[in-house]
Amino acid sequence: MKLIIALFSYIIGVSTTQALTINDARNAYEQSIYKKTIGIKFLQEIENNSSVNNVLLGYKGAVKMIMAKHYFYPWQKLNSFNEGKNILENAIAKDENNIELIYLRFSIQSHSPKFLNYANNISIDKLFLLKSISAIKDKDLQLRIINYLKSSSLLSQTEKNKLNSIS
User: Fold this and answer.
1) Whole-number pLDDT of residue 167
2) CA–CA separation, 22 vs 34, rounded Å?
3) If we measure between CA atoms, which residue out of 138, 146, 151 comes closest to residue 165?
4) Which of 34, 125, 135, 139 is the most buried (most CB within 10 A)?
């Protein structure tokens, strides 16, 4: 009887699980920097989600890279970062002109320690983002990217001022 109740509870829990949205991923990405539990929860949800598109995979990779900062042991940090990097780079390879994926890579590379040697796309990605930002139809994404770029030390004041006319 206990087995039947447990199985029934599991089935109900699985069937009521909502699909992971792009906004969930965006929020988890931004918040996992500060809260390890949010990153862990997002990664668990994405693993249990059968309808994961390429952009969600990019967020999975980016969150895994961020999670490296929350681990104690150096090998855990490096493994998490490298695994995430591979996932993000594979997502970008499938869709090289996806501004959201380029934004993720730019923001990660902007804050990656130099010894990880993960900064080779910063200049190209910055130019791509600045050139493409005004064409983004998703206003939530556009605003998130603009806000990030305005706070970036990698943009000149002139570049930041141009962003003001978009938002």
Assistant:
1) 59
2) 20
3) 146
4) 125
Give the relative orientation of helices 139-151 and 122-132 as an angle to the nearest 10 degrees. Answer: 130
Q: Nearest to residue 94, comparing CAs of 64, 68, 56, 66?
A: 56
Q: Are 57 and 90 in contact (CB under 8 A)?
A: yes
Q: How far apart are CA 133 and CA 167, in angstroms?
A: 10
pLDDT tens digits, 32-89: 999 999 999 999 999 888 778 999 999 999 999 999 999 999 999 999 999 999 999 9
Locate 149 and state its tokens: 């770029």
Token match 């900062």: residue?
A: 69
